[in-house]
Amino acid sequence: MTTVDTPERRQLRELTRTFMAKEVLPHLDDWERAGEVPRELHATAATVGLLGIGFPEEVGGSGGDLLDSVVVTEEIIRSGGSSGLVAALFTHGIALPHLVAASAGTQTPSTAGSNLVERYVRPTLAGTMIGALAVTEPGGGSDVAGLRTTARRDGDHYLVNGAKAYITSGHRADFVTTAVRTGGSDAGGISLLVIEKGTPGFTVGRRMEKLGWHCSDTAELSFADVRVPVANRVGAENTGFLSIMQNFAAERISLATQAYATAQRCVELALSWCRDRETFGRPLVGRQVVRHRLAELHTRAESARSYVLDVATRVAAGEAEMTEVAMAKNAAVAACAEVVDGALQLHGGFGYLRDAEVERHYRDQRILGIGGGTTEIMNEIIAKGMGL
């Protein structure tokens, strides 16, 4: 029995599969074409206890830890969902942790942090609000320390000016946890503010069309003298960069999980296709070259899963270094890219059609090596960990 194969987590898998079969799979193609998932899905996921997985019960969550979130993510994709669905439904996984940490009073007991929990965390985990995280800007993504959106103190408010780009759930979000510059030009001058949609000067721009993740809406945001109460600051001023960095490990493990789970799902799809598809009088799987290719793809997917789960277990225990997380993400992303490409190839012409599930995975997997820190940034982290 492994850490993700306990009786409780088996029940969590079954709950996720039931939710997917009943509430998601009959509608996913329509949501892909609509460009978003309905708000009602958040409420439904909250009602069955999935939306709050990984968040403490005292802030409205369902309890559990990183490994429980991994189980849910894996099962969503293995059940026929997609990484785009995970991005759309669980955007709060990157929008809320900063608020929860601030409410815990790790520095000092935080009345403001508790207020943010009541106003934003609980409603989001109940499925009645949607939150997003806004860090990336039009002029830069991975260089968080170089962000240019400013927040100038003006009495009991901040005046926010700047722009954000590629913001997941930016169109549907009721609030955005936003990285702003409140201090100097380096990492020590960054803070986080919760900015509500509808605040004067806060504009949600065009819906951005993408290669993949079609059911996950993405937006540009702009801020022109937006007045944000100081009470909406997350934690102490100029501590935002540290908060962002601390959540990167969980975000990268989530993306790595999406990668290996997508690879596993595509192996299953390819195996089923090759058993059913007949050419020249016999099934594709009857040919050695096809069987060996399936064996190679299966090996890549399972190896990635084992590696990511090992690192995720260490992260959950507070033992893993960021270097290990970076290696796990890159390894899973590379495996996913190879497996999805191989699976689509085995599907032949059908794999190129929108009717084929493998086609969606082919498009969706491309973002996994970009989001949460690019493959190149991960390699830089790994190199530093090697002393280079």
TrEMBL record:
Top-level taxon in the UniProt lineage: Bacteria
Gene Ontology molecular function: any one: flavin adenine dinucleotide binding
InterPro entries: Acyl-CoA_dehydrogenase, Acyl-CoA_DH_CS, Acyl-CoA_Oxase/DH_mid-dom, Acyl-CoA_Oxase/DH_mid-dom_sf, AcylCo_DH-like_C, AcylCo_DH/oxidase_C, AcylCoA_DH/ox_N, AcylCoA_DH/ox_N_sf
GO BP term (any one): fatty acid beta-oxidation using acyl-CoA dehydrogenase
Domain named Acyl-CoA oxidase/dehydrogenase middle: residues: 132-226
Listed Pfam families: Acyl-CoA_dh_1 (PF00441), Acyl-CoA_dh_M (PF02770), Acyl-CoA_dh_N (PF02771)
Entry keyword set: FAD, Flavoprotein, Oxidoreductase
Cofactor(s) required, per the database record: FAD
Domain Acyl-CoA dehydrogenase/oxidase N-terminal stretches: 6-97
Cellular component, GO annotation: cytoplasm
Residues in Acyl-CoA dehydrogenase/oxidase C-terminal domain copies: 238-386
Gene3D superfamilies: Acyl-CoA dehydrogenase/oxidase, N-terminal domain, Butyryl-CoA Dehydrogenase, subunit A, domain 2, Butyryl-CoA Dehydrogenase, subunit A, domain 3
Family statement: Belongs to the acyl-CoA dehydrogenase family.
UniProt name for this protein: Acyl-CoA dehydrogenase domain protein
Taxonomic source organism: Salinispora tropica (strain ATCC BAA-916 / DSM 44818 / JCM 13857 / NBRC 105044 / CNB-440)
